[in-house]
Amino acid sequence: MMTPLLSCPLCGIGNPADYHRDARRDYWQCRTCELVFVPPDQRLAPDDELAVYDQHQNSPHDSGYRRFLSRLFTPLRERLMPGARGLDFGAGPGPTLSVMFEEAGHPMAIYDPFYAPDISVLRDTYDFITATEVVEHLFEPGRELERLAACLPSAGWLGLMTKRVTSREAFADWHYILDPTHVCFFSESTFHWLGEHLGMRVEFPASDVVLLQKLSQ
């Protein structure tokens, strides 16, 4: 099969490799940053995407959801100064991680393109930014992650939660690719590329969590 005229949505490089194909979608892998991605013509339309998100019933009153978010919350909080100010990017219809940080003494802003679309918050500066189960949904992860990194000072933290690609064999049977709103899939190698690209140090405190700290300029 010929490689289509696609550019990686993370690094912008063309000529991706055929990675996987199922009955619903094709998946390509960037030869540079190793991101696995769905081609643009196989993404959901905005209304269909929103219909999927509207089915989510996350809430700060759900103890199970709080336990899930603690995989990112706990290691990130341990690295923050008291009173550090944060932004929860992609907060969704039931913002919860921001509530957890506020309860711990950290003032928070939230942004979500569907549920909290005040773009002005992305022109501010924050000590830390979180995005839980967000980056796999981004159509333009390179542009969005560069924008978030620009909102951080030196030593600021970007905390991401997303399940990681481990192998082609595991990918074929992976439940994560069944969600039609998941269009970008990161591996440890992809995050190492991202850290170098953004000038950030990379840590992996859990199998689905990555922390990136902005280095001094």
UniProtKB/TrEMBL annotation:
> How would you classify this enzyme at the top EC level?
transferase
A Pfam family found in this protein is Methyltransf_23
One of the GO biological process terms: methylation
- Transmembrane parts of this sequence: none
User: InterPro entries, alphabetically?
Assistant: SAM-dependent_MTases_sf
Database matches in SUPFAM superfamilies: S-adenosyl-L-methionine-dependent methyltransferases
Instruction: List the molecular function annotations (GO) for this entry.
Output: methyltransferase activity
The organism's place on the tree of life at top rank: Bacteria
Q: What is its EC number?
A: 2.1.1.-
Q: Which UniProt keywords apply?
A: Methyltransferase, Transferase
Record-given protein name: Class I SAM-dependent methyltransferase
Question: Which species expresses this protein natively?
Answer: Litchfieldella rifensis
